[in-house]
Amino acid sequence: MSRDCHVDVETFSKVLLKTAGTYRYAEDESSDIMCLVYAFGDEPPNIWIPHDIPDALAKQIRTWMHEHHHGGQTFIGYRCPKRIRWHADRGGRFWAFNAMFERTVLNGPAGRRIHFPKTKRKQWHCTMVQAKENGLPADLGRCGKALKTPHQKDEDGRPDMLRLSKPRTPSKHNPATRWTPEDVPEKFFNLYKYCVDDVLTERDTHYACKPITKNERKIYLLDQKINDRGWMVDLKSIDDVQFLIDEYKKRIVEKMIKLCGLKPTQTQALAEWIRQQGVDIPNLQAQTVEDYLKKKDQPQEVRWALRMYSLHNMKAPAKYTAMERAVCSAGALRGMFNFYGASTGRWSSRIVQLQNLFRPVIDDPEFAIELFNERELAVIKLWFEKNPMKVFASCVRGMLIPRIGHDLLFADFSSIEARIVAWMANAIDK
Predict the structure, then answer these.
(1) How confident is the model at residue 1, as a pLDDT?
(2) How far apart are CA 384 and CA 372, in angstroms?
(3) pLDDT tens by residue, 47-71
(4) Which of 111, 164, 196, 330 is a Cys-bridge partner for 116, taking CB atoms 3.0 to 4.6 Å apart?
(5) What pLDDT sits at residue 430?
(6) Degrees to nearest 5, angle at CA 223 with 318 and 161
(7) Average pLDDT of the chain, as a whole number
(8) Is beta strand 32-40 parallel, antiparallel or unpaired with respect to 46-49?
(9) Which residues of 100-203 form beta strands (DSSP E)?
(10) Are 37 and 195 in contact (CB under 8 A)?
(11) What is the 3-state secondary structure (H, E, C) of 177-214?
């Protein structure tokens, strides 16, 4: 009996994975597993469709599995295949490309709904991490091409997978908000084949790559623990500051319309208006706007328009919206860090981008957060000389709070990268 089981799932949810993140997606009650494909060791893949599907579609997928994957079985219904349950209950290893997704979804409401056994972090191994440590991209299809694996990922089913994974727009003839196998059996058939392809390509990638070191494995498990635990956020203060941001943006819009008849969101029209004022600006990208604001010879109306445009579209305050989208039910941001995100092996951050927070331009962000509770822009302007948007941006870090009974301790190393390089080069001179 193989100790390794290669797994891939295809899911549906009302939550947008890209903006909410894996954990918020996994905990949502709307999230659902449309199919699960697994393969033990070198054995043929098996497909489990944990829902009832039309008989014709069931026959079609069984025939395809028999013709293309002799020995591969097709399970249809809510009961978890016995071998999967046996493997999970005995601490067997599961492999997946971006295993954090499969683990959290299968341990969440979607997995419990289909009676998938609960698994532990140490049971999961990530082929994506293995690939990245071998200098390969964090994309399964590109990994297969780079390694010239025996089984290449078939992208033909991707459009159908993307369509079925999200809510559909209701129509007069079909008020349902989700596609079903009865509605579009051919698309679900393509989805099932796509999932089988993923498992075969993932397994080939795993075999082709050098295993990660024991030390990296320990760090990966620590990373998963950190992502599971997450960062608590001050939701009340976020709601307060969002109210103030909305109020301030309304005032910016009013001033912009009064000045040039345009909103800050009308980028192309605003760029054309600026050119009509005699300023040859190539675009309204952040760096371009910043450069033009430094020029003292620009018409005053153009400078005001650029400044209001820049403030309205300031990226740092947008992190509050990102926090609200990604926060989980317990009030924590989970899954914000990407293990081996850079080619050097260091972490990267996703969704809220906690590794790239605005450097405060005010002395006391905590006091500003207290003032947000008043929900009065006049109070913010009274206490701080900086523009309100910069005050809001300066308080993003303050929204990260400790759990009850705990403290947050922050530490940083001085010039750590330069010191490590010197150590690696054996440069011991002062």
Answers:
(1) 59
(2) 12
(3) 999 999 999 999 999 999 999 998 8
(4) 111
(5) 61
(6) 65
(7) 94
(8) antiparallel
(9) 124-126
(10) yes
(11) CCCCCCCCHHHHHHHHHHHHHHHHHHHHHHHHCCCCCH
